[in-house]
């Protein structure tokens, strides 16, 4: 009987990390970043980020294909470090934040893409336009407990979009040829998750 009890205890102990890491996770905005970069004047990349966002990730460690992602970004929180440029990006010529206050991503399926990598397919809505997008994800990491007793996980994700596909068409031609703002935008996410 003692052997059986010990065996059951060992099995439960081994299973605990799995149970602890499954379920719903909230994005910890204090330790995450929603960033982007776009070509400027044909010579360099301008980087920026969105300072306000929220989201939940449902992770099913037994079947990652059942996992889900739902993120909402406050478009008016865009910042590139230059006030005049940020005001232009918020205007009707770009994001038109008064009319389109949020950017959203809602996943529709998740596929494994190698060791510790996933492809997350979903619907990205920007400027009132919804199109399919694919996030290349590294992670999620295993769950761990921080010094304050919170259960955390992390992941990184990237994707590229053409801003014109979302109605963000403003540009200015350069005298030397080319345009002021590139069409391809690289989105990069560094996400820390907090167990709900």
TrEMBL record:
A Pfam match: YceI
Key words of the record: Signal
Parts of the chain that traverse the membrane: none
InterPro entries: Lipid/polyisoprenoid-bd_YceI, TTHA0802/YceI-like_sf
Keyword Nucleotide-binding appears in the UniProt entry: no
Signal sequence residues: 1-22
Domain Lipid/polyisoprenoid-binding YceI-like intervals: 24-194
Name the record gives this protein: Polyisoprenoid-binding protein
Provenance organism: Geomesophilobacter sediminis
